[in-house]
Specification:
This protein is an all-alpha fold. The protein has a single domain, classed as Ferritin. 73% of the residues lie in helices and 0% in strands.
């Protein structure tokens, strides 16, 4: 990777970790959902770790920069949005339904969704890792939708 190229993989890892931080703040705010939020936070940590295993694959950087649909500016914007939500939550400006909706929206729009179509040039390790992340993210989204529906009743 050239020095002037953005390290998209590191940005993706940071994205997972900032979402983990958000879910940990939500866990501290809502004791009745603490296990739920901590579970999601743990999953986000594992997502970051899984992405980290790809660091040793020289093809990942090339693939992420040239062939994936991910754009560094979009990842950066998403990280900034999550950081803003962390600040709001820490200030006590969010209610439970809002936190659930924020999480649902993050999981729905999460950058991993962009990985649903892989090019033939991505290695099997890259494809396998990213497919796992996509499946787990979809599971998060479905669970959040169910909880939101239950909370609205």
């Amino acid at each position: 990777m050239k020095a002037d190229e953005t390290d998209v993989l590191e940005m993706l890892i940071r994205h997972e970790l900032v979402i983990k931080e958000l879910y940990e703040v939500f866990a501290a705010m809502f004791k009745s959902y603490q296990d739920f939020w901590n579970g999601l936070a743990g999953d986000e940590r594992r997502h970051a770790d899984k992405l980290g295993t790809l660091r040793s694959d020289p093809a990942i950087h090339r693939w992420l920069l040239r062939e994936s649909r991910l754009r560094p500016r979009a990842i950066k914007s998403s990280i900034e949005y999550v950081e803003q939500q962390i600040k709001k939550a820490q200030e006590g400006n969010l209610k439970l339904l809002q936190t659930l909706s924020i999480a649902r929206d993050l999981e729905s729009a999460l950058l991993e969704k962009q990985f649903s179509k892989f090019s033939d040039t991505a290695s099997e390790e890259i494809k396998s890792t990213l497919k796992d992340l996509v499946a787990e993210t979809e599971g998060h989204r479905k669970t959040l939708v169910k909880i939101i529906e239950a909370e609205k009743r």
